[in-house]
Structures are given as structure tokens and as C-alpha cells.
Write a structure and sequence with these properties.
Elements: E1 5-9, H1 13-24, E2 28-33, E3 44-45, E4 54-55, H2 63-66, H3 68-73, H4 75-78, E5 81-82, E6 86-93, E7 96-101, H5 104-109, H6 115-126, H7 129-136, H8 146-159, H9 171-181, H10 191-204, E8 211-212, H11 217-229, E9 233-236, E10 251-254, H12 258-265, H13 271-278, E11 285-293, E12 309-312, H14 316-327, E13 337-340, E14 355-363, H15 372-382, E15 390-396, H16 398-404, H17 420-424, E16 441-443, H18 457-469
Parallel strand pairs: 1-2, 1-10, 2-9, 6-12, 10-16
Antiparallel strand pairs: 3-4, 5-8, 6-7, 11-14, 11-15, 12-13, 13-14
């Protein structure tokens, strides 16, 4: 049997990243995908009306320019990344908004009394964004770039503890940062939420928060095109139910959760390792609503009318209250919303003059609640008349989110809660958490280090580890002429 035969289960960004690395190294690679399309949540589909292209999962991609893998892969040379000058905005009150520009100094000057606090928190991280991405994009053991790691850690301790308000003089600046921290969907304050939130906020002032022209599926297609160009194959509609089905491969990368790995492995796993995977915890969920609109969202605050990415949630206290309700198993009356209107910057996303709007909101794990009306009502608080612009909508409950992608257990799009212990040990502590006790078998989903996001890092790390153990050199990933 050739030592160059590899199978990757799952065609999300991590699975495809690992497959690209192995194929470029010369292995015979096959990707198996249970859906009839590739990319999982990193896909773009017509969910409402013909001609309206909606991102199934993430719509905005800070890691597209900062991920070590995507930098090596040259993603920005393969697809067009549209990077707005306004990285994100925050709907603070009915007619008031706060803005985070790519230009950190411009942002700070707009925060008045909190200008110096914003600079202190984010300038040292944004100014060293490449090394910050290496700190945030690995296994955390050992930490690369200890000075950068210390800077991030100290700020995460401040913004993840009961002292998180002590640095701010105004509610606006605190809310602007909290809108980013809340991406992690945890009870706030929390160190495990503050650390990734600060990284994303710093990236907003470094490479910005880009969107791919044509939608998130462009990232998936670029990976798939490179894989097939180097001899790899993708088979859709294949549901792997046992590792025994993969015994003919020498290298196996699983873009799956620990829970799915336990099921596939059956009795093959050592008891201690299996027990560690069984202790891996999944977090709260999202519900998602996509809208086809007759015109842009009629935000009352003029700044919001230019924003591709918006956090709607009011003050820091309001967001913390909403996420506390979710953590307690309740649906908040005024939910936190993460919104994207990519058609403002990308005319390919909707028919001429029309727009798409993407919305995530937090809900308890396993929720069956359709949050369309709650999302519409919350947007109406900041954009009266929004309801009249809706041509059609498409809703996913938390249960639907898991049905779409079984890695999102209970609707947890992080594929495992990103609290501090599970950021450091994902799914276990060590310099190579992608390795499993089974020879040639590696985990590479968002449940493994460095965690959730469209970055390809977990697949990249797992494939590089596999190549080292095969005593094969790592390939060049850069685009070919």
C-alpha cells in the first residue's frame, strides 16, 4: 500500500486547507462530503429569492487576510477581498451609532474621552498583527511571540473580568468593543470571550474586515480549485459512518467534532483519550435570518447606512444582559444581533437596486425558536420602516443550524464553547492537539486549535503534522502563475 493515500472527511475550510497541503505535497487525496455541495457553512446560496446570494454561515472574514495559512496560500491573489474603510459599526441607541474604522486613530478620535483607552487597548495589538495572528492561530503551547501573547493576555484579563468597565469613561466605547467580544456567544465578562474579541478588534485596525466578492463560497471554491489542480478529488453525498470505511487510507484528516470522532471510532480509542473527548463541552447557539430587501436598511443613524458589518445591541450592559439570558436558557427580549449587508459593497450579491441582509442572534443550545420576528423588531428599533423593505426571508433555528452542519452541535457555530479552558486545550492541551492515538488519524475541525472561524488553520496544522510524521517536506502553497 502506498504511504501517499489520504482521505479528508468534511469539505469545510479546515478540511479543504488540509487537503490542499497534502495534495501539494504529492499525496493522493480524496475529500468526502456528506452534503451535495462543498464548504459547509462557508458557502453562498440563494436562500430567499432568485438572484439574491446569501452566505450560509460567516459573511465577514478578518482571518482571510491574517490567517497564516491564507497568507501562505495567497488567498487575496486568488479572489477579490473587498475591505471597507469602516470595519464595523455599533447601533448604540435609536439614532446613535459608534464606528470602528480601519484607521485606528480616526476611530479613537471619534470616541472622545475614551480615545486614549482605545489606543492603549488596541494599538499595540494592531501594530503587530502578523505576530498576533500567530499567537491566536496555533496550539497555545508553547506560546509563540511571548511579548505579544503577554500583551493580549493582560488585556483579556482586564476585559474579561469584573473590572472590564474600569478603563472606559463612556458607554459608547465600551459598547463598541463589547459588540466584537460578544461574537463568542458567552456570558459576559469572560476571559475566553475577551481574548478572541480583542484579536478581532485589532484586526479591524490592521487588515480590516473584508468580504469576498460573490460571497463566502468564493473562499471554498478557491481551495477546491487548487486541490483539484494538484490531483485531489472531492466526492459529495458521502456520509462516513465508521473509520473502518477509511482503512484503505494511510492518512486521515477528520473535519469533525470530538463527539463525531468517538462515534466513528467505535471501540478503537484508548479509554483516557475517549474520556477527554467526552468532557469536551458545546456552547450556546445561534439562530440565523437572511433577508432579501427592496432597498438598503433605513438606519436612523447615518453612519450605519454605510456599514457592511453592524452590531446591534445597545450598551455594554444591554449586551451582557441579553447573553446572560441565553446562558440561562431564555430568549432575550432585546437580543444582540450581528448583521452584515454585503450588497452595499458587492453588487454581485443582489439584483440591481436590491440588497441582502445577513443576521445572527444568540439563542440557547437546541432552541427550536424561529427568531425572524425578534430580529425584525430589534432592527426596527434602530431602522424604523425596515419591515417594509423585506421582499422575502429565510430562517434557521438552532436545530436547523445543526442539521445544516453536524459540527455545530445544538446550533453552536463555534463547534465547542470557546471558554478559556477550551481555548487552551482544544480538544486537549499539548503542542499537537490535532494528533489522535490512532496512527495516521488527525482531527482538524473548529473543535481543535486554534478554534472557530474561517481561517483554515486547523487543517493546515493537522496536515503539516501528518507530513512530518510521514517524513515528507511541507509544500509551497503560493499561487502558481
Amino acid at each position: 500500500m502506498s504511504s501517499g493515500r489520504a482521505i479528508v472527511v468534511g469539505s469545510g475550510p479546515n478540511g479543504l486547507a488540509g487537503a490542499v497541503v497534502l495534495a501539494r505535497a504529492g499525496l493522493d487525496v480524496t475529500v468526502l462530503e456528506r452534503q451535495d455541495y462543498i464548504g459547509g457553512a462557508a458557502s453562498t446560496r440563494e436562500l430567499t429569492l432568485p438572484g439574491f446570494k446569501h452566505d450560509v454561515g460567516s459573511a465577514v472574514h478578518p482571518m482571510a487576510v491574517h490567517s497564516e495559512f491564507f497568507r501562505a496560500f495567497g488567498l487575496g491573489e486568488r479572489i477579490e477581498l473587498i475591505t471597507p474603510e469602516m470595519s464595523y459599526a455599533h447601533a448604540f441607541a435609536a439614532d446613535r451609532a459608534v464606528v470602528a474604522w480601519r484607521d485606528l486613530e480616526r476611530t479613537a478620535q471619534g470616541l472622545g474621552a475614551d480615545a486614549s483607552t482605545w489606543r492603549r487597548l488596541l494599538w499595540p495589538l494592531a501594530a503587530d498583527a502578523e505576530r498576533l495572528s500567530e499567537v491566536a492561530g496555533g496550539a497555545f503551547m508553547p506560546f509563540p511571540h511571548p511579548v505579544v501573547a503577554l500583551r493580549l493576555g493582560l488585556r483579556a484579563l482586564e476585559q474579561g473580568s469584573a473590572a472590564w468597565n474600569s478603563a472606559f469613561a463612556t458607554d459608547e466605547a465600551a459598547a463598541l468593543l463589547t459588540g466584537v467580544i460578544a461574537h463568542t456567544n458567552q456570558r459576559l465578562p469572560a476571559i475566553g470571550a475577551a481574548a478572541p474579541g480583542l484579536v478581532l478588534a485589532a484586526f479591524a485596525h490592521a487588515g480590516g474586515w473584508p468580504i469576498p466578492r460573490g460571497g463566502s463560497g468564493a473562499i471554498t471554491q478557491a481551495l477546491a480549485d487548487d486541490l483539484t489542480a494538484h490531483g485531489g478529488r472531492i466526492e459529495t453525498g458521502v456520509d462516513v459512518t465508521s473509520l473502518a470505511e477509511l482503512d484503505h487510507a494511510d492518512t486521515v484528516l477528520l473535519d469533525l467534532t470530538p463527539r463525531a470522532f468517538i462515534r466513528l471510532a467505535g471501540g478503537r480509542l484508548p479509554a483516557a483519550y475517549r474520556s477527554r473527548l467526552e468532557r469536551f463541552r458545546y456552547g450556546d447557539a445561534v439562530a440565523k435570518v437572511d433577508f432579501a430587501l427592496s432597498e438598503p436598511v433605513p438606519w436612523r443613524a447615518p453612519e450605519l447606512r454605510e456599514a457592511v458589518t453592524i452590531h446591534a445591541g445597545g450598551t455594554r450592559a444591554d449586551i451582557a444582559r441579553a447573553d446572560a439570558d441565553v446562558a440561562a436558557g431564555r430568549l432575550p427580549e432585546h437580543p444582540y444581533l450581528l448583521l452584515s449587508q454585503p450588497s452595499l459593497a458587492d453588487g454581485t450579491r443582489a439584483p440591481a437596486g436590491k440588497h441582502v441582509l445577513w443576521a445572527y442572534t444568540h439563542v440557547p443550545a437546541g432552541s427550536t425558536a424561529d427568531r425572524t420576528e425578534a430580529v425584525v423588531s430589534e432592527i426596527e428599533r434602530f431602522a424604523p420602516g425596515f419591515r417594509d423593505t423585506i421582499l422575502a426571508s429565510s430562517s434557521m433555528t438552532a436545530v436547523d443550524v445543526e442539521r445544516l452542519n453536524p459540527n455545530f452541535i445544538g446550533g453552536d457555530i463555534a463547534a465547542g464553547t470557546a471558554n478559556l479552558p477550551q481555548l487552551l486545550a482544544r480538544p486537549r492541551l499539548g503542542p499537537a492537539p490535532w494528533r489522535t492515538p490512532l496512527p495516521g488519524v488527525y482531527l482538524c475541525s473548529g473543535s481543535t486549535a486554534p478554534g472557530p472561524g474561517v481561517h483554515g488553520q486547523a487543517g493546515w496544522h493537522a496536515a503539516r503534522l501528518a507530513l512530518r510524521e510521514l517524513r515528507m517536506p511541507e509544500p509551497d502553497l503560493s499561487p502558481e502563475p
